[in-house]
Amino acid sequence: MNIDNTDNKILRELKNDSRKTIREIAKSLGLRPSTVHQRIQKLRKQGVIEKFTIKTDNKAVGENFIVFMHVSTEGAIIPDSAFKDSHIKEVFGVTGEYDLLLKMKFKDVDDFNSFVLDFRNKYKLKKTVTMVATANLKEEY
Fold first, then answer.
1. What angle, 0 to 180 degrees and rounded to 10, lies between the N-to-C axes of helices 22-29 and 5-16?
2. Core-most of 1, 43, 62, 109, by most CB within 10 Å?
3. Domain ranges for the chain
4. Residue 47 CA to its chain's centroid (Å)
5. For residue 82, how many other CB atoms are within 10 A of its CB?
6. Third-level CATH fold of 65-132
7. Does domain 5-45 sit in CATH 1.10.10.10?
8. Burial zone of 25 (CB within 10 Å; 0-12 exposed, 13-18 middle, 19+ buried)
9. Contact indicator for 91, 46 with CB cutoff of 8 Å
């Protein structure tokens, strides 16, 4: 996979606003639209661009209560299907005392409490640590 400076510039433009047209990106970078189109197709084919998406306002969509949860599985098996829950936004395998780090979003503390109690019981988790975000200083998609 070879990503050059021009590819990186195109990716930055798309990260900033994925609704930009190929023509707009080409104009801002001083490239031909056909070049931008070919490079975007190449980046998609190589798997560099996985999908085009949007970033929503957390408060507007009722997901302003953000929680990070460290999970120690201690032999428990959490199936991939568990991570399809709409509250779970990101899951990372991590090193150290815990096995997983989950980023989750909820309407409020009651919504979170119901979820976490069910999640812990359903997968027989013995140890979790949760941290509630108090300010969202930067969030990218």
1. 130
2. 43
3. 5-45, 65-132
4. 16
5. 14
6. Alpha-Beta Plaits (3.30.70)
7. yes
8. buried
9. no
CA 94 remoteness from chain centre = 16
Residues 6+ apart with CB under 8 A from 136: 58, 66
Tokens of 45: 């084919």
pTM higher than the cut 0.85:
no
Strands across the sheet with 88-93, in order? 88-93, 100-106, 65-72, 127-132
CB 23 within 8 A of CB 33: yes
- Tokens representing 22 are 């190929």
Q: Copy the structure tokens of residue 63.
A: 């997901």
